[in-house]
Predict the 3D structure of the following.
Amino acid sequence: MYPKCPAFAKLRVAAIFPTMSDSQTVSAAVAKLYNTYPFPPEALLDEPPPGYNWRWNWLAAHSFCTGQKPQKQDIRILDAGCGTGVGTEYLVHLNPQASVVGIDLSTGALAVAKERCQRSGANRVEFHHLSLYDVEQLSGEFDLINCVGVLHHTPDPIRGIQALAKKLAPGGLMHIFVYGELGRWEIQLMQQAIALLQGDKRGDYRDGVQVGRQIFASLPENNRIVKSDKQRWSLENHKDEYFADMYVHPQEIDYNIETLFELIDASGLEFIGFSNPSFWQLERLLGKAPELMERAQGLGDRQRHRLIELLDPEVTHYEFFLGRPTVIKADWSEDDVLLTAIPELNPCIEGFPSQCFFNYDYQIVNLSVAEFEFLQKCDGNSTVTEILAGVQMGLDEVRTLLKQQLILLTPV
């Protein structure tokens, strides 16, 4: 499988720009793809984007990673590999006191990003035509670095993540998204098939899309690759930009747990956790086998992660947070500490006030009467003690609300 051998991806573009070094070759080919098909191809709006992604909200992300509200909100955010600015726009609107910087290799994508943010009023942002490797050219450090769908498209992801790590402020957070090899097996097969049929036309991305479309139209409906595309990607891949990004990309390195943590360890940053923690609970897979669960207790965290992805090989990507050591995490196990804390609502919820609403991850939450009354009194000024004086609820229920990411806590 080529994802385990980055040289394969480099060889695929070497014939297109034979006079360049490998790194220049890959970067030029990636820029060419996104100049041809600016990505993501989301519509431009004359208003703020709808909804939220909690991973891009500093308050929600900081609370998820540390268990407490951050001390400041006038932060600096870097969107590293911003593309057409879909994430950048959210970062600006979801963090009203922050200044945001976006960088990207593609001038075509950056032009779209600038227009997107201008039209929606995201005016606290500046853009630079830079690769991840050249991020040191930016002044200062950043409290939050967002790097989604970028590292796996660089010729040297370790060099890329190390460059970003140097720009992360002490106590800062980095949000990363990279591809997983197990859930992208059919994609890998199609990528290689298209490359074979393109031959000398590799690097002509419009031709690659055309070849890929013809392959899908010809394959039987019960073909594994066809079924995978229909089940997972068809809603997006009707757009050529998505199809090109998925199937004719000149550079892709997919990870498994073992290679992922090699990348993380090389960064010198602290692994805080996956942003979809429920997936990484072994109980959902082996909970009916107590003996196996007992055996798994002897495994390290990374071994358990590997076991989970082996037993549920649907992992198409890894999304996680890293921190610049040392990230201080709150401890709410002491009742006296929790009682003096000031709670407020997580900014990433929808449908409140109601006992039934969407949480930070757009999952439905059903509150008890007492929980609902508690949340209604979370005004950002009253302490837990003051709120509980008028609500029939205990501290364990408060901790449950925190675990569910429904409240943020500020220690006093």
About this structure: The first helix runs from residue 6 to 14. The chain has a mean pLDDT of 94.
